[in-house]
Recover the amino acids of this structure.
């Protein structure tokens, strides 16, 4: 019986004890959940497993054999494959080429493409993934790329497969396919380490789970018997959280944001909606429904071909991010890393980047004032950072999100705040804090627009929800009518009768 | 022991420590190095590189690149000399040169930021166009300065230090201030760190980049005027290869080619290292051919140091 065993793993980085004396084991044919808040040590554990870094103390054993991987290649050869959040595929090569990079079947020194496609096609069929081996990776959706990564693990006959937040960028349909695939791998006797923040997935998929907190083992459940959501959450945060949404009734006021007939290349049909002072308006939809694209048009991040955007009755035209900010319309983007944070710059700098134009006479910045602002937000939003001078890339996702919120909160007069995926990749404790910030803003009379793919979140925090489907606003729900079933039904495209046809 | 050395070398001030050490060693071992005459000569020899490095630092910090600086220096020098000779007015000549330099930089900026053409290609093109213009204007020959007041510009001294060295020092101070204490400077670093995030945070990225290139043109014109004054003529072939020396100095000084990281103190150290290396080799009568090899090795070493440092910082 094969098994994966961690014993006494410790790892320190300058100033941080990332892991201390963590040990547990997982038998073959098990899906084992690995949970914990950001910074709890999950990533460090995975990095040690994948040979990306070495433990200071302790060992990893597979079938009782100690692993001494000092590179990803070593780990790979030992049968350990880690599927990261950021996928590691070459976009311009075909699926088959990606799957056998470095191990191409050859005939007289020339790549035998026929054999290559056949072999890869077989593997994909075996694991029930319907992807053409000849397709370029660039043409695949993120979900499909993830399947390809997992197929890679199957091709090399890996014994241990670690999946790091695999569903964070998948639509529900793609997640379903992934879950089925994980089921097959379990039957094949693989050991699967499943890192996720999503409790429902853990309960659905895992045979057991381990919770890390502050680099230590907080709990190890060899089976899921008797384990409840509440136990896991309290083990993760070390305190009881009864209701992480904490929704409370609010009074919606006058219309602050009014969007009429806006359209662009990625939102072909004109869309209109309004958001009121003091309300949290949710935008739900499956991945690819066009929510982020619509928000980018409203904010002027992408040019709009038609339509008007009004803030408190005043028309912005044409909208550019600069004009939007000056009018009090701000956006926390979906992709924090690409569009949100400025890498290599400090926390203070990332906060001040926009609002400094108000207090920089003749273009001269005032460092003392910016430092003061930064310290104020670090304290009030509880941004966990050693200092305001820390490079923002070293902060966890939740804290980066808070820095971007602080960037907009330091603007003197925000009227509309759009937050795209406010808690993607953020742990439970920080989520509750971010919701609390959004509530406080709504109560101050700001119109808050939340875009989210997480149903429980949308239902948990929003006062009103618009559902998008196939790049159109398809339905509207008041808080009283919110239910997972209703929202999902509205978000799923109706394939038998295309909506375009219905309308015409 | 080795850990301490490693920490110092890979720390924020690693290059400065090396520089001070190298300076001390050279002062003690190379005869005639640490004399007033030699040090002033050394400083004068790095004036062109030093001045242009001020704005090249901004250019690199915003993830851009400018290969046209050498040509602009030569072109601006030509314009200064020819307009002065034609009109008989030196101020008019200098003004024309400053305008010409700024205009070329502005065109670079507009093409790069608005037409979205790669900076390397754009400035490779303007580098040749502007050099061509300088050659056409002068028919390929050097143009002598008529009014001696023009070349006294480079010969004059304040408190025993040549004017061009003062101008370089003042520009160092100005651009250190601009980088650290103005919205323009902070935005430059932000654009280099993440252009898209900066744009979405309300930074006017396009005009920021245009401003940087225009400023680069202006500063190149200053360097061109001083150079023309020192060599008492406008030379269409002056300052060839300057762009590479300037970029070397910046990289030596820890400016990241990936953008977002730059300090004036680093750039000054970079400029001085290049100057000292050349000066020492001259003092030791090392053949000029070897100097290329040494300069290349110094650059490689500096980049290696920088990579090791980023790696040490990145591994968290």
């Amino acid at each position: 019986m094969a098994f994966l065993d961690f014993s006494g793993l410790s790892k320190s980085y300058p100033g941080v004890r990332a892991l201390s004396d963590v040990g547990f084991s997982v038998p073959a044919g098990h899906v084992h959940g690995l949970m914990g808040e950001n910074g709890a040590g999950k990533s460090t554990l995975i990095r040690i497993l994948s040979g990306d870094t070495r433990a200071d103390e302790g060992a990893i054993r597979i079938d009782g054999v100690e692993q001494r991987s000092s590179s990803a290649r070593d780990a790979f050869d030992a049968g350990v494959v880690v599927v990261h959040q950021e996928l590691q595929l070459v976009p311009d090569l075909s699926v088959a080429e990606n799957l056998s990079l470095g191990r191409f079947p050859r005939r007289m020194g020339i790549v035998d493409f026929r054999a290559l496609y056949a072999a890869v096609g077989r593997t994909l069929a075996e694991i029930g993934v319907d992807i053409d081996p000849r397709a370029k990776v660039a043409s695949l959706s993120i979900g499909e790329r993830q399947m390809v990564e997992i197929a890679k693990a199957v091709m090399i006959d890996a014994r241990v497969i670690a999946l790091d937040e695999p569903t964070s960028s998948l639509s529900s349909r793609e997640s379903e396919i992934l879950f089925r695939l994980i089921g097959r791998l379990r039957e094949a006797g693989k050991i699967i380490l499943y890192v996720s923040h999503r409790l429902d997935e853990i309960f659905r998929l895992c045979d057991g789970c381990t919770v890390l907190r502050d680099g230590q083992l907080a709990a190890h459940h060899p089976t899921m018997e008797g384990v409840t959501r509440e136990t896991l959450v309290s083990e993760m945060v070390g305190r009881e959280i009864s209701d992480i949404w904490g929704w409370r009734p609010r009074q919606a006021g006058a219309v602050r944001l009014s969007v009429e007939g806006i359209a662009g290349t990625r939102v072909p049909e004109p869309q209109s909606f309004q958001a009121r002072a003091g309300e949290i308006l949710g935008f739900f939809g499956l991945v690819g429904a066009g929510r982020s694209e619509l928000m980018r048009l409203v904010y002027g991040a992408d040019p709009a071909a038609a339509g008007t955007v009004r803030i408190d009755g005043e028309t912005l035209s044409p909208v550019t991010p600069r004009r939007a900010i000056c009018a009090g319309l701000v956006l926390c983007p979906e992709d924090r890393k690409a569009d949100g944070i400025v890498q290599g710059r400090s926390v203070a700098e990332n906060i001040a980047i926009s609002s400094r134009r108000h207090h920089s006479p003749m273009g001269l910045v005032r460092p003392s004032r910016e430092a003061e602002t930064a310290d104020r937000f670090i304290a009030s939003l509880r941004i966990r950072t050693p200092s305001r001078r820390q490079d923002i890339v070293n902060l966890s996702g939740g804290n980066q999100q808070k820095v971007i919120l602080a960037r907009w909160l330091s603007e003197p007069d925000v009227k509309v705040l759009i937050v795209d995926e406010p808690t993607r990749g953020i742990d439970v404790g920080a989520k509750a804090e971010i919701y609390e910030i959004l509530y406080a803003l709504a109560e101050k009379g700001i119109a808050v627009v939340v875009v989210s793919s997480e149903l429980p979140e949308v239902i948990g925090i929003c006062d009103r929800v618009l559902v998008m489907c196939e790049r159109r606003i398809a339905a509207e729900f008041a808080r009283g009518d919110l239910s997972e079933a209703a929202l999902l039904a509205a978000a799923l495209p109706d394939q038998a009768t295309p909506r375009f046809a219905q309308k015409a | 022991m080795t850990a301490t050395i490693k920490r110092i070398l890979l720390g924020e001030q690693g290059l400065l420590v090396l520089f001070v050490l190298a300076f001390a060693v050279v002062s003690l071992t190379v005869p005639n190095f640490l004399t007033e005459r030699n040090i002033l000569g050394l400083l004068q020899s790095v004036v062109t590189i030093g001045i242009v490095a001020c704005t090249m630092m901004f250019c690199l910090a915003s993830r851009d690149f400018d290969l046209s600086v050498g040509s602009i220096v030569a072109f601006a020098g030509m314009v200064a000399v020819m307009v002065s000779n034609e009109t008989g007015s030196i101020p008019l000549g200098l003004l024309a040169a400053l305008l010409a330099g700024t205009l070329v930089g502005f065109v670079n900026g507009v093409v790069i930021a608005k037409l979205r053409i790669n900076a390397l290609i754009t400035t490779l093109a303007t580098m040749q166009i502007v050099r061509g213009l300088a050659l056409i204007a002068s028919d390929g020959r050097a143009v002598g300065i008529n009014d001696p007041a023009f070349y006294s510009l480079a010969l004059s001294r304040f408190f025993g230090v040549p004017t061009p060295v003062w101008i370089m020092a003042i520009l160092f101070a100005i651009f250190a201030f601009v980088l650290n204490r103005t919205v323009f400077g902070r935005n430059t670093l932000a654009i280099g760190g993440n252009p898209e995030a900066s744009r979405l945070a309300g930074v006017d990225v396009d005009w920021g980049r245009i401003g940087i290139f225009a400023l680069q043109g202006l500063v190149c014109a200053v360097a061109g005027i001083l150079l023309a004054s020192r060599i008492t003529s406008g030379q269409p072939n002056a300052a060839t290869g300057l762009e590479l020396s300037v970029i070397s100095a910046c990289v030596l000084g820890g400016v990241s080619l990936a953008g977002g990281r730059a300090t004036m103190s680093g750039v000054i150290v970079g400029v001085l290292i290049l100057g000292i290396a050349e000066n020492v080799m001259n003092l030791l009568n090392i053949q000029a051919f070897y100097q290329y090899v040494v300069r290349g090795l110094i650059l490689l070493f500096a980049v290696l140091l920088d990579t090791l440092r980023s790696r040490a910082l990145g591994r968290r």
In short: The mean pLDDT of chain B is 90. Residues 288-314 of chain B form the longest helix (27 residues).
